[in-house]
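User: Second chain of the day. Same drill as before.
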Amino acid sequence: MDQPISVIDVAAYILHKKGSMSSMKLQKLVYYCQAWSLVWDDAPLFREDIEAWRDGPVVRELFYRHKGQFVVSHVDGDASALSASQAETVEAVLADYGNSDGATLSQMTHDEAPWQEVRRDLPEGVNSDHVITHASMKRFYSSL
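Assistant: Same format as last time:
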């Protein structure tokens, strides 16, 4: 089984394949890559936590790499760090989600249980550092 890699490497792979994109879109794509890796590969793709922020799932470590940039064209990751099976998972996610914009992907995450469960007791619009668990992601996306 493949070992989890860094979210920065996953983001570098996505940007290499899809080109520049909004920071929101990049965050949501890495979230869906993690979710589907948990379902298809029965393992996390990357080791960093995903938090339930106001605008949807966010990986804090990635956020700090692109903070202040609306459009992200590069992160200092290693796209070649992904194994063949990890790359295959990311490619499948990009095929399904890669043509949606960041706002659409954000709304999709807001309509899904993993983000909703963590945000349940929080007022709308409030920031949060609560983690979306692998178990909740796997449970929800396995049911689709």
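The two ends are 24 Å apart (CA to CA).

User: Great, on to the next one.
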